[in-house]
Amino acid sequence: MEEYLPWIIQAVAGAVGGNAIGALRRNNSFGPLINSLLGALGGIGAAQGLQAGGMMEQVLALVGGNANVADGAAGLVGGLVLPLIASFFKRGS
User: Fold this and answer.
1) Can you give the pTM of this predicted structure?
2) 8 Å CB contact between 17 and 43
3) Average pLDDT score over residue span 30-58
4) 28 band by pLDDT with thresholds 50, 70 and 90
5) How far apart are CA 92 and CA 45, in angstroms?
6) Cα–Cα distance between 90 and 63 in angstroms, integer?
7) Helix axes 5-24, 67-87, angle to 10 degrees
């Protein structure tokens, strides 16, 4: 279970971010389910991208060295960004 904890934290934080951006952009929101899915994907993608790019150390330094908080922060930002970008491509907006 410990090996999956970072992914779970990233997905949950991303889902929170996806729903937060959905609430802020009500007119272009996809609804809670799609916002959650896009947010979770964005959260995992952002955190894994930072890890692969070697930049997670900087995030760790910003949050005081706590890996779980760093995963949550990266997931939250990714969860905000992916639904935001997708909302610009939504038809009828």
Assistant:
1) 0.90
2) yes
3) 95
4) confident
5) 27
6) 34
7) 40
Listed in sequence order, the DSSP H helices in 1-93 are 5-24, 32-52, 56-62, 67-87
pLDDT in tens, 59-90: 999 999 999 999 999 999 999 999 999 988 88
pLDDT attached to residue 72: 96
Q: Letter for the amino acid at 85? A: I
Spatial neighbors of 53 by CB under 8 A, at least 6 apart, are: none
Residue 44: the pLDDT is 97
Any idea which residue has 């970008």 for tokens? 85
What gap in Å lies between CA 60 and CA 68, rounded to an integer? 9
User: 1-10 as b/e, with b when 16 or more CB fall inside 10 Å?
Assistant: eeeeebbebb
In the block, residue with structure tokens 């410990």: 2
Angle at 48 between CA 20 and CA 3, to 5 degrees: 100
